[in-house]
Amino acid sequence: MAYNRKIEEHIEKYLAEDSNKIFFMWGPRRAGKTFIMRKISEKLKVPLFNFDLRSDQEKFLPDRSVLSKLASALPVILIDEVQNFPEATVALKILFDEFKVKIIATGSSELRRKSTDFDSLAGRFIEYNCLPLSASEIKNNLSVKPYEESVFSKFLMSDVSIYGSYPEIYGQKKSEAEKIDLLQNIFDTYVLKDIVDIYNLRNAKLAKDILVKVALQIGSEISVRELANSLGSNTMTVSNYLEIFIKNYILLPLPAFKTNLRRAVSAHRKLYFLDLGLRNILIKDFRPLDLRPDKGGVFENFIIAEFFKKVLNDHLHCSFYFYREYGGKEVDLVAENYKKEYFCFESKFNGHSVSPIFPLPHKLETINQKNYFNLIESLCQFSDVLAS
């Protein structure tokens, strides 16, 4: 099944408006960026240039005579894997400044790291994310009757918590074995090979071992020093690897909320997986949630990942934290909007109510298997205004 994606709404708006800012679509491999670009290419009847190919890279050398021909022939220029040719940054700047042509480019945000010229594009681009499917994207593509929503919500949460939501996994009918094999392939080729190659990491085994350790500690605070000691590595190396996984949409960081109240304490942050299918590949556990001792942590990870997807997909003005007191009491997720208003969420697999402990004025909700759709959607009203 081909899913309509949230980012396609942003692309349609971009194509309809007068702005010719460069439209960057960032995200991990296999999240559906190329599929979306092919749809646009077919609809607009324009080619899709792929910077994996040297022949396509050569069409974007910083030569005005070459670029003018591209701009005059194409109403929209589509580029896939733009980070593979960072030298094209200069050509993109010329196309924007001199030829006023619309450009949609996909890739990982590694273009920033690879190109010293990327800063020259400041003010010339907008950027959105294409991530693994969100729960709301899945639901919006299916005909779910109102009386089916409760059962559907529990089923969807369970399925995504076990196999994740990469389009190849969720968008096609596959057996359990086929899903696991595909997840292993995504992990081996993207998470390990691609990232290790991009960053010239010297120790692929250490990279995997770090992720396994994090996978076994979801819901808990991560001490980089303790993590490094347990792996026989140094703190700086482990810290660098973690930042690479965060930058490349593998891990989601949740920092501690700091106030000037002495009872709030935490020197560390929590780390969650954007996609739980990859997490389960690491720990080799695909049992139903009811049979798993980590079901509470898995559900917490599912909820936090969906909140992150909501903010990134909708460009919401919102930041996330967790909160812990000296006494050990915690708030799983604190949302803060740009007006310094607070919305606290406690994830409870079995739906028990909780008592407020967050020290500032706030709204508190218990989020469970049945109500998470509505509470995640409520973030739109809470988060100030949508970005344009």
Summarize the structure.
The protein is of the alpha/beta class and 388 residues long.
Can you offer a commentary on this structure?
The protein is α/β, with parallel strands linked by helices and 388 residues long. It has 2 domains: 6-129, Rossmann fold (3-Layer(aba) Sandwich); 135-382, no CATH class. The protein contains 17 helices and 12 strands. The protein has helices at residues 6-16, 33-44, 54-57, 64-73, 88-99, 110-114, 135-140, 149-163, 167-170, 176-199, 204-215, 224-231, 235-247, 276-283, 295-314, 372-377, 379-382; strands at residues 22-26, 48-50, 76-80, 102-107, 125-129, 221-222, 251-255, 269-273, 318-324, 330-337, 342-347, 363-367. It has a 5-stranded parallel sheet with strand order 2-3-4-1-5, covered by helices on one side. A 4-stranded mixed sheet has the order 9-10-11-12, with helices on one face. The chain has a 3-stranded antiparallel sheet with strand order 6-8-7. Helix 4 packs across helix 5 (88-99), helix 8 (149-163) crosses helix 14 and helix 11 (204-215) packs across helix 14. The two termini are 30 Å apart.
Please work out how many helical segments DSSP would assign.
Answer: 17
Count of DSSP E strands? 12
- Main beta-sheet annotation: 5 strands, parallel
Global Rg: 22 Å
Unreliable parts: none
* Domain count: 2
Structural class: alpha/beta
pLDDT averaged over residues: 90
The percentage helix is 40-55%
Shape: globular
End-to-end CA span: 30 Å
- Portion of residues in beta strands equals 15-25%
**Physical arrangement of strands within the biggest beta sheet:** 2-3-4-1-5
Order of helices and strands: HEHEHHEHEHEHHHHHEHHEEHHEEEEHH
